[in-house]
Amino acid sequence: MPTSAQSVLAVALILLAAVVAQALQHPLPDERIYASDPWKPARGDPLGAGGFESSFRTINRRSLLNCFDLNPYVNMTVDTAGPLSDTQNVTVSISGVVNPSDHDWLGVVSPSNASTSNCPDVAVLILATGDTSELPLLCHYPVKFKLLKEDPGYLSCASSQCQVPGLFGSCLVKTCSASITFRLINIRTDIMFVLFTGGLQVPCVVDKAGPLPFANPKAPLYGHISSIDSTGTSMRLTWISGDAAPQTVQYADGSTATSTVGTFTKSNMCEPSAASDFGWHDPGFIHTAVMTGLSPSTQYSYQYGSQAVGLSPSTNFSTPPAAGDDAVTLIIFGDMGKAERDGSSIHYIQPGSISVIDAITTAVSGANVDFVFHIGDISYATGFLVEWDNFLELIQPIASRVPYMTAIGNHERDHPLSGSYYSGTDSGGECGILYYNYFQMPTPAQDKPWYSLESGPIHFTVVSTEHDWKAGSEQYMWIQADLASVNRTRTPWVVYTGHRPMYSSYDSVLNAILPAVDTEYTDAIEPLLLAGKVDLVLAGHVHNYERLCAVYQGKCLVNSTKDTTGLDTYNFTTYAAPVQAVIGMSGFQLDGFKSQVDVWSKVRISEYGYVGIQATRQKLLFEFMFVNMTVGDSFAIVK
Ligand SMILES: *[C@@H]1O[C@H](CO)[C@@H](O)[C@H](O)[C@H]1NC(C)=O
Ligand SMILES: *[C@@H]1O[C@H](CO)[C@@H](O)[C@H](O)[C@H]1NC(C)=O
Ligand SMILES: *[C@@H]1O[C@H](CO)[C@@H](O)[C@H](O)[C@H]1NC(C)=O
Ligand SMILES: *[C@@H]1O[C@H](CO)[C@@H](O)[C@H](O)[C@H]1NC(C)=O
Ligand SMILES: *[C@@H]1O[C@H](CO)[C@@H](O)[C@H](O)[C@H]1NC(C)=O
Ligand SMILES: *[C@@H]1O[C@H](CO)[C@@H](O)[C@H](O)[C@H]1NC(C)=O
Ligand SMILES: *[C@@H]1O[C@H](CO)[C@@H](O)[C@H](O)[C@H]1NC(C)=O
Ligand SMILES: *[C@@H]1O[C@H](CO)[C@@H](O)[C@H](O)[C@H]1NC(C)=O
Fold this sequence. Notes:
InterPro entries: Calcineurin-like_PHP, Fn3_PAP, Metallo-depent_PP-like, MPP_PAP, PAPs_C, PAPs_N, Purple_acid_Pase-like_N. Its main location: secreted. By secondary structure, the chain is an alpha+beta fold. The protein has 10 helices and 33 strands. The relative contact order is 0.11. Residues 111, 113, 115 line the site of one 2-acetamido-2-deoxy-beta-D-glucopyranose.
């Protein structure tokens, strides 16, 4: 039997090999970005423009050492003594800095007692995650941070103090100040503000302030709803709390339901990974309860919590139309992720996410959105667990009011030797566990994240591109059976959706050698789409908007014609093949397009936005909306 060190090494080498093999086999956009961006620090560009985000992870690989040269005058004050409310802006003032530098930064660390001195000496394990930065390794990571120079008066010393007065009103030692505001949300664990100098490559601790606890670390927060079936009469509500005791949801004038409570530990994460190590943050408890006895297409309200932990505010929500109803309106998109509303840096920022979330919030507030579909690459927390809280807080204005349905993406699931179809490390070791807890969809089993859902005249077949879909696989058989089971009188439209696309004009230096068609996927699945007369195929993964024709085996079997209003219309009275679109333009840094235009590529737009669909029994109207809520592309399918 090998020693544990030997087996750790062996596993790590296997993982490394798998990562390399994966990169060679499936160099789709996210792998490309993942390989070149987040895990690799921008060496030699510690604070340069563009290097910052990717450098962020570098700081996670070091003990938080004190600086050699402790600045004797530094004074950090926080504008509140705490405890903190669930959402609060906190300003940290720093004075007494002798030499303001653009390498000075302020981190938000939580919990305050995180061990930052005993870094695990497992370089090879971290290397297996694709992280090639320098050692010694990480201990604990800041939740977020800002550079002090974000205070415009800092480097110019606009606000100064004289520490050592000289003769005749002169000053022998002058120091400077900065003031930095963070928007903090309740992540249950207490908050410490840590002042660093040395940039991200060689950071050392200058001073600390805090800790500040949250007033109610058990508060019931971040409630979001989802459909459990196609009746529109039962809705699942899922929320987070620091308390393990069951809580209740009160809804619809006096009904109640008691939560079932779940959580997970480090040992549930795939190893070796960020999630099981420096990216870990206590998730608290995930409460979920099903509200039953509702009517479809109806507005209700709910409140959740308990006497012990308090109650959430009352929230209005709507049930979606039942399967077979005449009309439905929904919003669908992929690859949204998150960013910080206060402009802080975090380990993985999706720069368009906030503008898209705000636009969708406006659309949902205007009523007439029955539900929302987020088709993979959900939060991009990728092993930095606290970023799920950030994401859930960001989408709450949407997901608390209309069902937020999801499909799994590579950044939720993939990890070598873990059962994912692709062997990249894209989930940071989460291996789906966080996604499955936060977004409990009506799937056959936890790690079989495929399901179908009907609402109004549409049948949705939602697949996992991250699990085997090859002919004969369990998922393949399910897709075949699901499509065969559709009653086209009840739901005349069938939409197939999953994270990765079959076709894309994604722009890459590798285009010369890489086909734009994932023939492994099309060979397996396109015949099923035709047999099931699927009308529309939607995917993300590539971060732009692209409309294809009604395509099969790379050929356009139906082209659009203009209707009397000039709208591109696909007449499906006689069925031939599904129209396809790539809709991964909801947050992640946008991708371009290759210059060659394949016959199936019809409309290409590299802008942030989301897709709105309005379907009646005769017509499915599809609109790509920019974040300013104007239409970027639209078409209809009629039958
Ligand atoms: C630190 O700054 C605060 C206000 O900015 C001031 O009240 C306090 O006296 C200072 N402390 C020291 C030790 O200088
Ligand atoms: C930090 O404090 C919490 C709560 O007091 C405790 O449960 C935890 O074990 C502590 N962690 C460390 C690393 O000391
Ligand atoms: C919920 O809807 C009711 C009735 O339409 C309205 O009076 C109330 O203000 C709404 N509540 C919220 C929090 O929007
Ligand atoms: C807190 O900060 C955010 C972003 O910096 C800002 O949008 C918000 O209005 C602030 N909230 C309060 C209560 O000041
Ligand atoms: C198909 O749906 C229609 C309309 O809902 C219903 O009347 C019919 O019985 C269904 N057919 C089957 C075979 O279930
Ligand atoms: C659709 O248009 C493409 C050219 O854009 C053409 O190659 C194809 O034959 C057309 N298909 C049909 C069914 O007309
Ligand atoms: C679609 O084509 C059919 C004939 O194939 C025709 O009868 C029908 O009017 C067309 N529909 C529209 C909306 O153009
Ligand atoms: C909306 O945004 C799109 C895409 O950025 C832009 O082309 C268009 O001019 C904008 N329209 C308005 C009215 O601002």
